[in-house]
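Page 47, continued from p. 46.
Same chain as before, 450 aa.
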Amino acid sequence: MVPTLIPDTEMIKNALSLLCLSATLAYAVSDRPNVILIMADDLGIEALGCYGGASYNTPNLDRLAAEGVRFDDAHSVPLCTPTRVALMTGKYNFRNWLAFGILDPEAKTFGHWFSEAGYKTCISGKWQLRSYNPPDFQPEWRNRGMRAEDSGFHEYFLWHTEHTEDKASRFPDPRIQANGKYLTDTKSQYGPDLYVDYVNDFIERNQEEPFFVYYPMALTHGPFNPTPDSEAWRNGNRFESSPDKYFGDMVEYMDKLIGRIDSKLHDLGIRHNTMLIFYSDNGTPKEVVSKMRDGRAIRGGKGENNRRGTHVPLIINWPAGQAGGRVVSDLVDTTDFIPSMFEAANIPLPTDEIFDGHSFIPQLRGEKGNPRDWVFIHHDPLPGHNKKGRSISRWIQDKRYQLFDETGDNQFYDFTTDPELLYPIDLKKADAETRAAHTRLKKALSKMHN
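Result:
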């Protein structure tokens, strides 16, 4: 006779408790990823090998793109601060753009929201959102922007936190404010090394908790100085400036620094559930001409209203949350990052704020998602003041057409055949498809106001 085995009730309870705990931990790991958002300064797609660039070696970014997801139609405002404001707040610039170098001190940023959601948060790199104008130009905007300590991050390590005339160097011998105090020992050091040192130290100190790191890079913005890997640096010419000589060195050092962050995550065993995002604030400086593998030479378009000014890299590598090894052709703009990062982190979008973006997380996972039909750009470098021809331009574009509102005389272009936007479309002579696209974009553009 085979005895009947009656399970011990307490044993069942313990087993169920362990199963529940395991499920909870698995849920926590998958639904509370670490998030690192890296934004290059002045870098168009032509600078990276994974986008067809041939002038510079970018092995780390190329590998992250090959293993992760590369978005090939991402855009920014063609100038740095407007992009930064839109990125940090999730809003188009017509809602909260005050002046160049200014972030509304009353705004809430992703630093606030990630911190409120229980993430440890850090910003390291370039600030330039407190006070930009010198005393003799629009002095009413001095000291009107957000202080770094009010931006919602638990820790900060930043260049250019106060007046422009006090910012000093961002590269050799940098002037850096860290959590309220200026560093006093940066002589002969390289700013980008220090920014990444701080990022990696923060990651190591907070590896047991979910963290959000925002790293707005100083590279590859001018001045075009040597890097520690340049011969001129080793020869003591650290402040020499030449785009022809050193822009390439800066791109390659930028890539090296991103590799350092990636290696730190691997060393700590937390790479799998860390979403690493790489983006850029605008196109490459106009002084720079880069070669493509297809033979084209691309002049940088920073400040331009065409794709040379707005078409920027977007690479996302998140092993736990991606269907990797793919290229996504959907449109992305700067306001899409907050909805996307919050969806990845299971943070509800605040209901008392307006957010203009679409989440691209479904596309990251290999799903169709809700791709954009268009991107909108509000380019107003100096609100209320036209300096050096920098007047306001506002436009909307899809995968083929670009339509300006009255700031661009309502002109309509096909940038696939006219990339420099030299020949406006005559709607009287256009075919039905083109006229329908104009009608569709005009309707969407008419809504881009407060």
